[in-house]
Amino acid sequence: MRHVVSREADGQEVFSKTRKVSVAYYLEYLGFRHRVCQSFFLKTLHLSNTAVQTAIDGKSDSGTFGKRDGRGRQPSVNKTDAEHMDAVRKHIKSFPTVESHYCRKDSQRQYLDSKLTIKRMYDFYVEKCQNEFDENYQPVSVSVYRHVFNEEFNLGFYKPKKDQCAECSKFELMTPADKEMCRLQLEEHLARNKEAQVAKASDKQRAHDDSAFRSVTFDLQSVLQVPSSDASLMYYKRKLCCYNFTVYEQAEPNDGHCYLWSEVDGRRGSNEIGSCLLQYLQSLPKTVQEISMFSDTCGGQNRNQNVAAVLLYAVQSIDHISVIEQKFLEKGHTYMECDSMHSAIEFAQRNSSVFCVSAWKTIFEVARRRNPYKVHQLSCTDFVDCKALCDQLIRNRTKNENGDTVSWLKIKVLRFEKNNHRIQYKYRYDDDFSSINICGRGRPAIANLPELTQ
């Protein structure tokens, strides 16, 4: 029953209880319609009387609901206008971003300077509004700014391990005229990068298919410190530097090896890198006959004659290894699988305090749950004198067999073979190998390998 309101001639409203509409409620059961009361109908279908009445009022001539949905028709009273929202988006886009060195190739996340925060960016936004707009302009609230940042942008606050490629960044900042002059140089740079990535992918697939072949990437993680804590007093204490050299096997189960030492036991030069590589090669199973090793182009650590001497010594002294190839990625594009180990370690340490070197060892071991990393804590007695070994093994290191000068800083591939007193090298992955006769005019030193000294 409905109350009907009518208006008399004198303008007074008169309420009438005359029934205008009768509503009957039915439920279907076993093919028959059964009339029920209103309360039973509403409770059975878990409906309110308002929903039923709205459906009746909106019924069209065809018997279906024909009324237009009124939700969202009225403008929100507290909605931020489009002009202010565009200003927030423009301000966020004004901050330069970089790709993470740790992200996989299919990740689209970009990173801002690690010193920034959303609150600090908002303060810059308010300051900019005060300088560029009149005094009546009201900036959006910090919650609105935060919502736009989190919902519309895929950004984070983290400084990647390595900056962007200097060559590529320099080219982007050039004038159009300078770009035309340097375009060929950039194309060669990108071609070398493509060759290196193709070679790494090929060796990775080969390692997956052939158990006698092993392909790895290795790199030295950024300096770790002891103590490491969020306590404010720790920022003023002198820190002990620790180093973590990582080796990542590209074929499943993707074993990872961490070689940990402090600055008390060693530095981070070619002696330490060469010693870690030698320990890893000596730990390989006897089924491995060939190995390829990818790294960046750091001359003081990876691409030098001391490490070459260690690899030459390893291929001659380890019975089951017949070939070792050391390959270098293009500078500025040294994205490797071992970088994931560094990222996992930093993630595992984010909420932990470190007060001794052995605590870092524990963090390394729990950084990956499945197939944990194999951690080797080294002391000063574990490092060998790679320079002395190089002086004994490699007597000629400047001229190849054709008499041409060898430019070690341009080498992309080094190859070492058992019972061969030559180092093979090439400057491009697609080139043919050239050879260095390490004996010069003397007798081969690899016939009687020298004793390694610490």
Note down, in words, how this protein is organized.
This protein has about 450 residues and is of the alpha+beta class. It has 3 domains: about 5-55, no CATH class; about 80-155, no CATH class; about 185-435, no CATH class. Helix content is about 35%, strand content about 20%. The strands form 4 sheets. Strands 8, 9, 10, 11, 12, 13, 14, 15, 16 and 17 form a 10-stranded mixed sheet that branches. A 3-stranded mixed sheet has the order 5-6-7, with no helix packed on it. Strands 1-2 form a two-stranded antiparallel sheet. A hairpin with a 5-residue loop joins strand 1 and strand 2.
Structural topology:
Elements: E1 4-7, E2 13-16, E3 25-29, E4 32-36, H1 38-45, H2 49-57, H3 82-93, E5 98-99, E6 110-112, H4 118-132, H5 142-152, E7 155-157, H6 166-172, H7 176-209, E8 213-220, E9 224-226, E10 240-249, E11 256-262, H8 270-282, E12 290-295, H9 305-317, E13 323-328, H10 339-349, H11 357-366, E14 374-377, H12 386-393, E15 413-417, E16 422-426, E17 434-437
Helix pairs in contact: 6-7, 8-9, 9-12
